[in-house]
Automatic annotation (TrEMBL):
GO terms for biological process: proline transport. The lineage of its organism: Archaea, Methanobacteriati, Methanobacteriota, Thermococci, Thermococcales. It is a multi-pass membrane protein. Its main location: membrane. Keywords: Cell membrane, Ion transport, Membrane, Sodium, Sodium transport, Symport, Transmembrane, Transmembrane helix, Transport. This is Proline or pantothenate permease.
Length: 537
């Protein structure tokens, strides 16, 4: 074992432990445990949003995909960037306004209140979707942590998974939402630094980008083709397959919960988009080039790696002094933890709040509810650990499967409920039930995570047309269509329609010289003004 790496990593753990201890002072009620009392600064919420979004997929899954697919994997980065922007434009501000109006703490809280569902079916379906796919998502993060520890400390992947589970579960149980948000901020910065440093060091080692492309071309020229060598319809399907992540952003509970916690919904637009967009662009470039150049390093014999998804930790150990590599390994574990902690929190809210408290009607004190939530976190973590140990351990595919289930289950109904006054509870129930059942059947029984021609009968024909496209991408639009049709066949309550109109009524603006001057400011100038006025600069 490299004790220098261990030393750097232990320093990181001390930082996390301190944040958990500090956050526990602000975690006395259910509202504080799940959404930070709706007092989270937009900078912290934005960085926490992205850190919880990208997970081990960014540090292991995506570089591994770029390692295997080459230039074509860049389409996944494009999908993630535009998905991020879609979240801030379509979901964030409106969800924060509605959540404040309804005093909603969780996504099921909001959906039940918005659709005025007194049957509890939407809450039950929400909890089922969260538990099934969020547990699978947490398992993917545990597997990613296991791979990182295995590469860094020469232990088995199973041992690495156990270490990840112990570290992560401990501080989620201790600190709740405040601990999750502020550890995410630290982790977001670790991820950023790691994905800036690794590609630069790789370029220096190889001798420049031209040399890297020469090495890659000599092994597999298709890795330098933007569509993996495909042409015509196959090229379109190839691009859709990688960029399909974009629709998933509209339905991820562990991401949209961040918007519900923001102090001022207006700040989710300009400063939120600016901070998130810049951070996302940098890390996606870094993750892609880490995998792309990592292939050149392996092909040239500079690095040896058994699993393409372990290329980033392998590069850190190869390039850096032990204690610095320990910090980089911590950055990789950061990506894993920053998503899994949020997912554990959302999963615990599905059981403790949505089922135990709201559906079963068990009245407990706020402190007791927090304690029950902590017990649930531990239980979900144990189940996810079992799946991580026994599952396929391919991070890209594991995340795509879980991401897709949440996308189809929540994305269509959440987006429509925020923008269309006419959506009904019947449509929500039918759409969410279809999303849950269809994703389980299509992914677990028929296709797996992506369409393929090996499926029987009609499904095989469909698989030929969309071979390689994730199942959730097509199923998202099918669910959207179902919800629209059912809404048109049913009628929403008039008070719900009226509330929607009042909340998002367009108010005419007088065209004064002062307003014209404000609108002429650039995005950067407005963000700078915001940073100065809020005391950040």
């Amino acid at each position: 074992m490299n004790f220098g790496i261990l030393f750097g990593f232990l320093i990181y753990l001390v930082i996390l432990a301190y944040i958990g201890w500090w956050a526990n002072k602000y975690t006395k009620t259910e509202d504080q445990y799940f959404v930070g009392g709706r007092k989270v600064h937009v900078l912290a919420a934005t960085l926490s949003d992205k850190a919880s979004d990208f997970s081990g997929w960014l540090m292991l899954g995506y570089p591994g995909s770029a390692f295997k697919a080459g230039l074509g994997a860049f389409w996944a980065g494009i999908g993630c960037l535009f998905g991020t922007l879609a979240d801030y434009l379509l979901i964030g501000p409106r969800l924060r306004i509605y959540a404040g109006k309804f005093r909603a703490i969780t996504l099921p809280d909001y959906l039940e209140a918005r659709l005025k569902d007194n049957t509890k079916l939407i809450r039950i379906l929400s909890a089922a979707i969260i538990l099934v796919f969020m547990t699978a998502y947490v398992a993917a993060q545990f597997a990613a942590g296991g791979k990182t520890f295995a590469q860094a400390f020469n232990v088995s992947v199973t041992t690495g998974i156990l270490i990840t589970v112990i570290i992560l579960t401990a501080y989620v149980i201790t600190g709740g939402f405040f601990a999750v948000v502020w550890t995410d901020v630290v982790q977001a910065m670790f991820m950023l630094l790691t994905l800036i440093i690794m590609p630069i060091l790789a370029l220096v080692e190889i001798g420049g980008l031209d040399r890297a492309t020469q090495i890659i071309a000599s092994v597999d020229p298709n890795k330098l083709h933007p569509f993996g060598g495909a042409t015509g319809w196959a090229a379109i399907v190839f691009a859709i397959g990688y960029a399909s992540w974009i629709v998933g952003y509209l339905g991820q509970p562990h991401i949209v919960t961040r918007y519900m916690s923001v102090e001022d919904p207006r700040k989710l637009r300009r400063p939120g988009i600016f901070i998130s967009g810049i951070w996302t662009t940098i890390v996606l470039w870094g993750a892609f080039f880490a995998g792309f150049l990592g292939f050149a390093l392996v092909a040239s014999g500079s690095i040896k790696v058994e699993d393409p998804e372990r290329i980033v930790p392998a590069m850190a150990i190869h390039f850096l002094p032990g204690w610095v590599a320990g910090f980089v390994i911590a950055g990789i574990i950061s990506a894993v933890m920053s998503t899994a902690d949020s997912q554990l929190l959302v999963a615990s809210s599905a059981i403790a709040r949505d089922i135990y408290h709201k559906v079963l009607g068990q009245e407990l004190g706020k402190k007791q509810m927090v304690n029950i939530s902590r017990i649930v976190v531990a239980a979900v973590a144990l189940v996810a650990m079992w799946f991580a140990i026994t599952g396929p351990k391919v991070i890209y595919q594991m995340v795509a499967t879980a991401w897709g289930g949440l996308a189809v289950g929540f994305g269509p109904i959440l987006t429509l409920s925020l923008w269309w006054k006419r959506v009904t509870k019947e449509a929500g129930i039918v759409g969410m039930a279809y999303g849950l059942i269809s994703e389980v059947i299509l992914e677990a029984k028929i296709y797996g995570w992506a369409f393929n021609p090996k499926a029987p009968g009609f499904f095989g024909t469909l698989g030929q047309w969309f071979n390689g496209v994730p199942v959730f991408f097509i199923n998202f639009f099918v669910t959207l269509f179902i919800i629209i049709i059912v809404s048109l066949l049913t009628k929403p309550p008039e008070d719900v329609v009226k509330l929607h109109e009042e909340l998002f009524k367009k108010v005419p603006i007088e065209k004064s010289e002062k307003i014209k001057t404000a609108r002429m400011k650039s995005q950067a100038e407005n963000v700078f003004d915001f940073a100065v006025s809020s005391g950040l600069l």
